[in-house]
Amino acid sequence: MKRFFLFFIMSITFVCLSGIFVWADSENENKGIYSLELRCPMASGVYMIKEGDNTEMVNAINRNYIAGTVLEITVVPIPSINLVFDKWTGSVESSDSTIIVVMDSDKVITSHHKERYKLGDLNRDGVIDSTDYILLRRYILKTIDDSDIHFINHVADLNGDGEINSTDAVLLRRYILGQINTFKH
Fold first, then answer.
1. Residue 101: beta bridge partners?
2. Where in the chain is the domain with CATH 2.60.40?
3. Alpha helices, DSSP H, located in the chain
4. Is it true that domain 118-185 has CATH number 1.10.540.10?
5. Which is more confident, 19 or 144?
6. pLDDT score at 150
């Protein structure tokens, strides 16, 4: 009977202490502890976050902040990839690469990026057509060089092998004719 009574007292104590911990968590919510989640669907997001005098670089974040915390969040460009910042969506809507976020509620913010250049669009008119094919053929035949089209290495290597050659021309022709709908770069 003494063991049962001791077990009963310990159980009540545990339940009460658990209630205190839950109460403490609820109290923090009432004081305004809010979460910030930064998302980047293309997995290319690098952010600089300034909070007061502190600055840090992060790839993604899911962190809690005290109510009223002011954050300056900037998308950091990565020149080695074919993406540039486009816009923020979610709790903040903006096309500026730097946003100011006041932590007054839970926030989920997504940064969206778009292609810096379009593979196969050698003349940068936004359309992949026979003009691009002619430019690529002229480049391969060395009747023009990449000083005429300074970014040709970025848009003409359609198979991603590091060389611009007749294989890329065949892929571009097949794309224009509708035989393929993307380049596996």
1. 71
2. 33-115
3. 2-31, 130-140, 152-156, 166-176
4. no
5. 144
6. 62
